[in-house]
Amino acid sequence: MTDERLDELYRLLESAPIKANGNKPLGPKSVRHIHNIISAALDSVTGPRKLLTVNPAHTADPPTERQIKAATPDFPTLNDNETRHFLEEIWKPCDNRAYDGGLTHHCLRDAPLWTSYAATSCRRSEVLGWKWSLIY
Prior knowledge:
This protein is mainly α. It has 7 helices and no strands.
């Protein structure tokens, strides 16, 4: 195992379609994660009286933090203004006359859920698991 072979592996992962990734190549962050796993595994077998004297992953060339940050995300995200506009829209009353519960009616029944996502960055399963006594 050499650092050149590791570099070849990283470039292959960044360019070849991966079936488990929807036939798309892996992104720089995933390749960097693979590098970290390989590096840790090779660290465990390096040193005196071990299988390797040096860790080739230490001199390999995985994607850098700059490349990771520059990569296009797989899904679009909202900026602060877009989030504010979205939350304002879902909380607008719809003037539904069929509703007679004394509270303002909103056609989007999931408005509190979306607001919780935006305000806390919790995952769906976490928000759905909240107890009403802790919220209301």
